[in-house]
Write a structure and sequence with these properties.
heterodimer; A: mainly alpha; about 75% helix; about 0% strand; globular; B: alpha/beta; six-stranded mixed sheet; four-stranded antiparallel sheet; 10 strands; about 40% helix
Chain lengths: ~325, ~240
């Protein structure tokens, strides 16, 4: 299994991945509170970017509404916790089906009625907006007043109920990001991965090669939605408050796709590298300006815009393919 | 001689335009059958109905004893009909090998088995050395051969070739003709081709159907068809026969 997953990957790429993992594992020992929160954001966007990439990068289906699945995961687990005292890991067992079924419903509507391309993207936005408006009026989750979890005690880490210090969330997200990376690699090297790439490249040609494109697009949406909902569970228990206006906001969906676009859509390492680049530059510049006493609200978004612009112009495939070529890290083919 | 494919009176209308008008023919198992005719005669429409892109307005299509008209392209492919496109449709960002592996995965569940099968097909079509290039970097003749390889990798019983020779130089045409003949002889593959390159039609086809304005105007051996006055009149032109 491991041999299959690493076939064709140069030894130095594996070594660097290992070294990177070691750095991430050790980081909380050295990082202060601020750096830790930035690292948590990086891992959060690396993970959600990886999940989004299954739909867009592999199967070619552009979702601009992934905040929907984050929000469903967050609200499902938080509501179960607040109302019934059900912990996040059991809550996840409910969050995943809720997100997956919603994804399947959107996918079914779109693919059954041949809604594709930008129209599909608009449909994904529409459903995220439905959810935002819907949750704004849903009394069970406290509507627009927001759903609050009992505030955590930093002194005591309880992994089972996800109550504790940010370091615990950091490690939870790190494990999730590593697992998502390995899972995506396995998917991409499987029959399903090949069929997704065929659909992404030319759907009609894929159909003529015998691929049931409806079936495989549905699988992509369901897997992506289910994975994304886990990030929502972590989000809810990390921030302890949920407002529909924030959670389902379209800008949350855009934040998710920035990483993979900057890093390289359809690549495995792109979402990780991209969220790193985006967050480091965005946060770095903000704190730099802050140290000069300049506080510009929204500067991060402006920087994101500029980074995207530069990437699209200079490296339309993303930073990772370029970096992999430069450093000789790309996969070798026999 | 049993019919692998039988097309019974199929008709396709696009609003007012009658693209294919009650076309009827049979292709026997192991035969190479060509459909020729002037531009706009309805050849590609006929093809697209067999491949499942459109359902016919009337008539039926039977493949290996079962009705296939109205089925989706992927279902028809899974029953054993492979096709190429008039305007090539590779998976451009993928390598040549991956393009063919995708075809091979139709009836194979393991990527390693599919890769082995794909490499065999690539060797047969002289593309093995180019297997790691991306499809978008190939020349047109190579792309056409790659598309042929992708279709062959799905293990079809019937191969539909839509102008696979168009844009090729005469020596390249001879190369493809030789490959197709070999496939037909060695594996018993049945081939239905649309072709304008008469050099290829004459060399390959056992029987030829001539379409004109959507209707069949002649059917028979290549030699008989090119001497048919109606065919000369509507398609080949008098000087072609000489």
């Amino acid at each position: 299994m491991i041999r299959r997953l690493t076939a064709g990957v140069p030894a130095r790429t594996l070594f660097l991945l290992g070294a990177l993992l070691a750095v991430f594992l050790a980081a909380p020992l050295f990082a202060g509170d601020y750096v830790l929160t930035v690292l948590i954001l990086i891992l959060y966007f690396a993970y959600t970017g990886q999940a989004w990439n299954i739909m867009m990068g592999f199967a070619g289906q552009l979702s601009l509404g992934h905040a929907l699945y984050v929000g469903l995961g967050a609200y499902t687990s938080a509501a179960l916790y607040v109302h019934f005292g059900i912990g996040p890991w059991i809550g996840l067992l409910a969050a995943i089906p809720v997100a997956a079924i919603t994804g399947a419903f959107i996918g079914f509507l779109a693919f059954r009625f041949r809604v594709a391309g930008v129209y599909f993207a608009i449909l994904t936005i529409a459903f995220a907006e439905f959810a935002r408006v819907g949750f704004d009026h849903l009394g069970w989750t406290n509507a627009s007043s927001g759903l609050f979890l009992p505030v955590a005690q930093y002194a005591h880490n309880d992994l089972w109920t996800l109550r504790g210090h940010p370091v615990m969330f950091y490690y939870v997200l790190l494990v999730a990001t590593v697992l998502a990376f390995i899972f995506c690699r396995a998917l991409l090297k499987s029959r399903i991965g090949y069929f997704w790439l065929a659909i992404r490249e030319d759907e009609e040609a894929a159909r003529s090669a015998g691929i049931d494109t409806f079936h495989y697009k549905m699988i992509a949406v369901v897997i992506s939605a289910a994975m994304t909902s886990f990030a929502g569970v972590v989000y809810a228990f990390y921030y302890n408050n949920l407002f529909p206006e924030q959670v389902f906001n379209i800008s949350r969906s855009i934040d998710i796709i920035l990483g993979p676009i900057a890093g390289g859509v359809g690549t495995l390492f792109g979402p990780i590298l991209g969220s790193f680049v985006i967050e480091i530059i965005g946060e770095g510049l903000r704190s730099l300006l802050e140290s000069f006493g300049i506080d510009v609200p929204g500067i991060k978004q402006v920087v994101f815009g500029i980074i995207l612009l530069l990437v699209v112009v200079a490296m339309p495939d993303g930073v990772w393919p370029w970096l992999a070529r430069k450093l000789g890290l790309a996969e070798q083919r026999k | 001689m049993t019919a692998l494919l039988s097309v019974n009176g199929i008709t396709k209308r696009f609003r007012g335009l009658l693209a294919v008008d009650t076309a009827t023919f049979e292709v026997a198992d192991g035969e190479i059958f060509a459909v020729i005719g002037p531009n706009g005669a309805g050849k590609t429409t006929l093809f697209n109905m067999i491949a499942g892109v459109f359902a016919p307005n009337a008539g039926s299509i039977t493949f290996a004893g079962e009705r296939i008209d109205g089925l989706s392209p992927d279902k028809i492919c899974r029953r054993g009909v492979g096709r190429t496109f008039q305007i090539v449709r590779p998976f451009p960002a993928l390598t040549v090998e991956d393009n063919v592996i995708i075809g091979a995965l139709l009836h194979r569940h393991h990527v390693d088995d599919a890769r082995e099968h794909a490499r065999g097909v690539l060797r047969r079509l002289d593309l093995y050395a180019k297997r790691n290039q991306t499809a978008s970097s190939l020349t047109l003749p190579d792309r056409k051969r790659m598309e042929l390889a992708r279709a062959l990798a799905t293990d079809p019983k019937l191969l539909l070739l839509d102008e696979v020779m168009a844009g090729l130089r005469p020596t390249e045409v001879d190369g493809v003709v030789a490959t197709l003949r070999e496939l037909n002889r060695e594996t018993g593959l049945t081939i239905l081709l649309i072709e304008h390159v008469m050099r290829a039609v004459m060399a390959l086809a056992g029987r030829v159907l001539v379409l004109h304005h959507g209707a069949a105007i002649a059917e028979g051996t290549p030699d008989a068809v090119v001497r048919n006055p109606a065919v000369i009149d509507s398609y080949l032109g008098a000087e072609a026969v000489g």
